[in-house]
Amino acid sequence: MSTYEGDPVPEGLAIQQVSDLLGVPAPTLRSWERRYGIPVTRRSDGGHRRYSASALHELRLMRDEVARGRKASDAARSVWALLDTEGPAQARIQRLLTASRELEPRAVREVLEDARSDLGLGPALDEVLMPSMRQIGSWWESGHCDIAQEHLTTEAARAWLSWLVSIAPPPVHEAPVLLACGPRDLHTLGLEALAALLSHDGLATRLLGARTPRRTLVAAVAATEAPAVVVVSHLSTQRRPAVDALVAVAGTGPQVFYAGNAFLFPDSREGVPGTYLGASLSGAAAVIRERLLST
Ligand code: B12
Fold it and tell me: How many CB atoms lie within 10 A of CB 10?
């Protein structure tokens, strides 16, 4: 069932080694296998679990889903879906990952464009692009792909998203939604995807991009009279300046929204002004559109 290729540890790792490597306690690893078959391990002659590279890959995905705040049973369902090669989105994820491994940006863009025309823009983003990026991130973290693969895929996806914004019909609402990363955040891809969705929904957007300083954001709101602002932050270490930017901008009048892994857990959202947009990009675009159209 796994899509993982290459096994750098042919004899397999022992459970304690895997626990140390992934930061997941051994009893949890046993329970994931017992309850969800993630992963199904082979046994040594002495009957001990042995973890292959593909088993490690499944566990990394499971760990990351749980870290996103999902219950283990829901996390397991996501991992099964990601590893399953059936289904229209899954087939495209596989094609995108192949294009990424082969460092073929044109093929990356073609897969994304095919996904958009066959599945629609929202599913192309939420079900093909984002899971593929998470998979590449997981490969990169485990040393199973070079950073070149991540950079090339990210840049190909960004080029496609920027093209989508450029071909969107003229906006029905002129006042723009401002889209910014927190002052220390470089992860722009989610925002760029949101810009594509909103612009194809008839909303004007202004993408301020990576590392937007608080004062710049406040000045941009004043200059554009933006009715809405979205701030995204990915790392918990970067959350504080992002929250400061949200507080500063909330005081000036626009509707304020925020998203990203830095805000995944409920306690990370305590006292943050505005509306948390959740994980789904299409869901986020729908929330923003509804709010703007109802005011
Ligand atoms: C591409 C990428 C980069 C690129 C970004 C380029 C760009 N222009 O975007 C570059 C190379 C710059 C980069 C840098 C770094 N990165 Co990086 N990066 C990634 C990667 C591979 C994809 C990011 C992405 O776009 N994901 C798609 C997003 C949208 O998916 P998601 O994170 O799962 O987000 C979900 C929700 O949070 C939410 N969401 C997130 N964004 C948004 C936006 C909106 C509008 C909405 C509504 C929702 C939403 O929806 C998603 C769906 O569930 C991820 C892997 C991953 N798992 O995502 C690592 C990852 C995020 N990066 C990581 C790290 C560690 C870094 C660096 C610190 C590395 C380093 N040592 O320098 C730096 C930090 C730079 C900085 N100051 O911000 C880690 C973060 C681990 C953690 N949680 O602490 C990850 C998870 C990789 C990994 N597995 O280790 N990175």
Answer: 7
